[in-house]
Amino acid sequence: MQVHRLEEKLREKDLRLTESRKLVFEVLLKASRALTPKELHESLTDKTDLASIYRNLTLFKDLGLVHSLSDGAYSVCQHDHEDHDHKHIHIITSCQKCGLTEEINEHESELCEASKKLSGFSKHLNEVSSILLQGLCKSCS
Question: Which domain holds residue 92?
Answer without folding.
Answer: 81-135
